[in-house]
């Protein structure tokens, strides 16, 4: 797929800060987020970019090839709509598109958009990740435990991706520095062609 804008894939475990850093890129650099379809229930802090559907509707979208990528994470399906991404990827009124992906979803996007910029956000200490998820109060203890159980597998999958890796600390004092690292990776990459 040819694009006029940068496509940036943020990959990392739940709670590492992908959404927070994506929002900063939207605010500071005029990036946009595509619509994501999911089978999970809405959360209080969800953004407008989610569309909530049943599994039947999700599978109908899969079978009709409506997604550029889709994956299952923690019992729920997530997918990025191809039409939404294609429209945003060629709209020059903004700087580019940010995708929040699993390693599998990232590989699917890279197969179609080889020049997509991939940045893996990794916790400098996986223990703080569970603490952060607990402090959110948006997930049940069972959901948090399940995410913790798959963390090591997930980090192993991320380590096999060809991408830039950025360590993220639990300390908010370091997040500005982390954001500057993310910015520098994105800004030095050419626009997709």
Automatic annotation (TrEMBL):
Domain Guanylate kinase-like as annotated: residue spans: 5-187
Recorded coiled-coil stretches: none
What's the name of the protein?
Guanylate kinase-like domain-containing protein
InterPro entries per UniProt: GK/Ca_channel_bsu (IPR008145), Guanylate_kin-like_dom (IPR008144), P-loop_NTPase (IPR027417)
UniProt entry tagged with the keyword Transferase: yes
Alphabetically, the GO molecular function entries are: GMP kinase activity
- What Gene Ontology cellular component terms go with this record? cytosol
